Amino acid sequence: MSDLDKINSIFNAKIDSVKTKEDLQNIKTEFFGKNGKITQQFKTLGSLEANDRKDFASNLNKVKDNLSNQIEKKFLEIENAEINDKLKNEKVDVTLPVRPFQRGKIHPVSQVIDEISSIFSEIGFSVAEGPDVETEYNNFTALNTPEDHPARDMHDTFYLEKNKKLLLRTHTSPVQIRAMLSGKPPFKIIVPGRTYRCDSDQTHAPMFHQLEGLHIDKSITMGHLKGCLDYFIKEFFEVKNVKMRFRPSHFPFTEPSAEVDIGYRIENEKIVIGEGNKWLEVLGCGMVHPNVLKNAKVNPNKYRGFAFGMGIDRLAMLKYGINDLRAFFETDYRWLNHFGFDPLDVPTNYRGLSK
Ligand code: DAH
Questions:
Q1: Distances in Å between the alpha carbon of 332 and those of 39, 105, 336?
Q2: Which atom of ligand 1 is nearest to the CA of 286?
């Protein structure tokens, strides 16, 4: 029996009993490793006569190919067996009840944003967004608030550079400009988002949330604005009647402008929204100023409309009886567990917003 035949039969005897990847690796080393049986045969080539060398090399290569093919085949066999084994043993019975587990909670601000989006989507508003880092132009100038306007001081702006061209938006109103510049009228959008002002106490945080609304079409009036807000407030607070008043106000980007108050009373140390002799300011609004339309390339002789802006955090505090705004941003798990919402209970108008 030649050396190659011997190697072949040793290999054949071993390969059949291989069960694991580890066994296979051992065989690989025994035959193809640094001092492996096949490797050693290759080392003898140099000492052979030219003629013998040719024949031997071709035989050796055949044996080598044969062995490596078998190793490869075995490897796939073991892999397959492992997978089948897993499939057989790691079964999940999807009909079993789930174990109680901590799912985490939805933050009241996220919940309220979902509720508001659902309410407005019912009457045809879609949700638009804009960046937190805004240009001074979109945040102020385009909104009819020129450089020397006193409203700029009231906003306690975080400027991002010395020349004051970039800032953290102080309100969601700049998205009105972005939305109008990037499309054609009519526009009917709401814009929830983060806003920033250099201010912090029990009712103010440097980062807070606002919701902007904008409806531009050919014959929109203040009556539409009133109807829209009346519907929204009732839906949001989940009450049938809401006492509401429009108080004349001033915003550079609307003319006329108004602030909206809703009636409330305190009963058993709890706030009851919608009725009573006290007033609570909830939002600012008005008819979009023609200068704003012009700056956003909308023809004010053809189109008009209303806009409004409100503080989301404040609405969340009112609805869910949270009295310190700062708690929203403290990431206290116990607080979130108490005030948070079930992630599987997505708010919709027809299923109920918060119940
Ligand atoms: N941007 C205003 C603020 O932050 C709120 C506001 C008032 C928005 C009137 C409006 C509006 O769109 O019409 O105080």
A1: 66, 12, 6
A2: 13
Summarised one tens digit per residue, pLDDT across range 201-233 is: 777 889 999 999 999 999 999 999 999 999 999
Kindly tell me if the per-residue pLDDT of 9 is higher than 70.
Answer: yes
Report helix, strand and coil shares of the chain as percent, to nearest 5.
45, 25, 35
**Which stretches within the chain are classed as H helix?**
3-15, 21-32, 37-44, 50-89, 108-122, 136-139, 150-154, 174-181, 222-237, 290-295, 312-320, 333-339
Total-model pTM? 0.72
Ligand 1: distance of its center to the CA of 192 in Å?
13
Strand partners, 272: 265
Taking domain 108-349, whether its CATH number is 3.40.50.2000 is answered by no
As a whole number of angstroms, the distance between CA 20 and CA 273 comes to 72
pLDDT digit string, tens, across residues 318-349: 899 888 888 999 989 899 999 999 887 777 77
pLDDT at residue 101, as a whole number: 65
Task: Copy the structure tokens of residue 274.
Answer: 């919608």
- How many whole angstroms from 309 Cα to the centroid of ligand 1? 4
Helix (H, G, I), strand (E, B) or coil at 184: coil
251 Cα: distance to centroid of ligand 1 (angstroms): 7
